[in-house]
Amino acid sequence: MRRAVCPGSFDPVTLGHLDVIGRAARLFDEVVVAVGGNPAKVGLFHPVERVEMLRAATADLPNVVVERFSGLLVEYCAERGAQAVVKGVRSTADVDHELTMSQMNASLSGLETVWLPTAPRWSFVSSSLVREVALLGGDVAAFLPPGVAEATARRVAERLRGADE
Ligand code: PNS
After folding, report:
1. How far from 62 is each of 35, 143, 150, CA to CA, in Å?
2. pLDDT digit string, tens, across residues 74-94
3. What are the beta bridge partners of residue 85?
4. pTM for the full model?
């Protein structure tokens, strides 16, 4: 069984992420989407909510499972019996960032990383830009799975109400 881990913060999961996860699911027998990131960092969604949203968004992909992870990615991949990490790359800036992480992970445990070029239509989409645009009142629905777009609109409205109080 060829198993890949697709790690990320997914705050929130975008249609770019889903494109990469779907393509990884066609390349590997099983894909474990691993929701990590810095727990101290205040994001838009709690990791538990991100896992729920990812499970809903990947419900049509029978060989995709979604879990939280913490600690070293190489250790998590070893525990899950994964042969590779899959990452989407949007730009040369992503390559610069991802290259050293891939090389460090390969050096730590021999873990391979497979890069999938992001589909051009999503190459400018990132969770951080989606959060910024949404919190400034912009419409981000075109970049998100429908349930995630609704949850994002609700969360932004809550944040803005909280900021007024
Ligand atoms: O979506 P993000 O924020 O780019 O995801 C980052 C994530 C969670 C994939 C990255 O921070 C990570 O791999 N964390 C695990 C910690 C680790 O192993 N660090 C060393 C990597 S060389």
Report:
1. 18, 23, 24
2. 999 999 999 999 999 999 999
3. 5, 113
4. 0.95
